[in-house]
UniProtKB/TrEMBL annotation:
Domain Methyltransferase type: 37-131
Transmembrane recorded as keyword: no
Biological classification of the source: Bacteria, Bacillati, Actinomycetota, Actinomycetes, Frankiales
Name listed for the protein in its UniProt record: SAM-dependent methyltransferase
Protein's organism: Pseudofrankia asymbiotica
SUPFAM superfamilies in the cross-refs: S-adenosyl-L-methionine-dependent methyltransferases (SSF53335)
Keyword annotations of the record: Methyltransferase, Transferase
Entries under InterPro entries matching the protein: Methyltransf_11 (IPR013216), SAM-dependent_MTases_sf (IPR029063), Thiol_S-MT (IPR052356)
A GO MF term: S-adenosylmethionine-dependent methyltransferase activity
GO annotation terms (biological process): methylation
Length: 205
């Protein structure tokens, strides 16, 4: 990871996904409890929204500066926060070891999102859930064409972010079952962001 991705981009992301996204964070964290794995922990913006039933947060985050930006939020958390790696594609956790997984605007930047979702499926306990809010492919053909055109250049300045991933399809291909998904057009002048927000579960065999 270069200087820009490790030191600069996390600070930009902390601001861009800060106060305007608080209501979204509050919605997506509802229902979490026990041991929660957060992939793409960032600067810890989700910590204040985690319910009282959460007992431990396992954090995966590649940017070192994100750890520092999160320090005050970690100190104020009523549960233990433990960093457990920097790569969502290769989780350093045993099979069926966490109650829930949380991702917020993360799957767009992981190079191999399908592999990351297979890892999520692997570490979730049967009956466990993945709570997510992501952005990706728009069902509007005109918007989708622009997403495809802009993604290569956008990715170079936004940490590998893809505008055009079909989040619901990717989740289902992993073996998880979509329990609920809400989709909506995100704001912004370009209006190229399309949101996927919901819950997926790992079946009990």
């Amino acid at each position: 990871m270069g200087f820009y991705d490790d030191q600069v981009l996390p600070r930009i992301t902390d601001l861009a996904l800060g106060r305007p996204m608080e209501q979204t964070r509050a919605r997506v964290t509802t229902g979490l409890s026990g041991e929660v794995l957060e992939i793409g922990f960032g600067s810890g913006r989700n910590i204040p929204h985690l319910p009282v039933g959460v007992t431990r947060l396992l954090a995966v985050e590649p940017a070192v500066v994100g750890h520092r930006l999160a320090a005050s939020r970690i100190a104020a958390a009523p549960f233990t926060v433990e960093f457990v790696g920097d790569d969502g594609q290769a989780l350093l956790l045993p099979d069926a070891s966490v109650d829930h997984v949380l991702t917020t605007w993360t799957l767009c930047t992981i190079p191999d999102a399908e592999q990351a979702l297979r890892e999520i499926h692997r570490v979730l306990r049967p009956g466990g859930t993945m709570h997510f809010t992501e952005h990706g492919h728009s069902p509007r053909p005109g918007v989708a064409r622009w997403q495809d055109r802009l993604t290569p250049g956008w990715g170079r300045i936004a940490g590998g972010c893809h505008l055009n991933r079909r989040i619901d399809d990717l989740i289902e291909k992993s073996g998880l079952t979509l329990e609920s998904v809400r989709t909506y057009q995100m704001g912004g002048t370009a209006r190229l962001g399309f949101a996927y927000e919901g819950v997926a579960s790992k079946r009990i065999l």
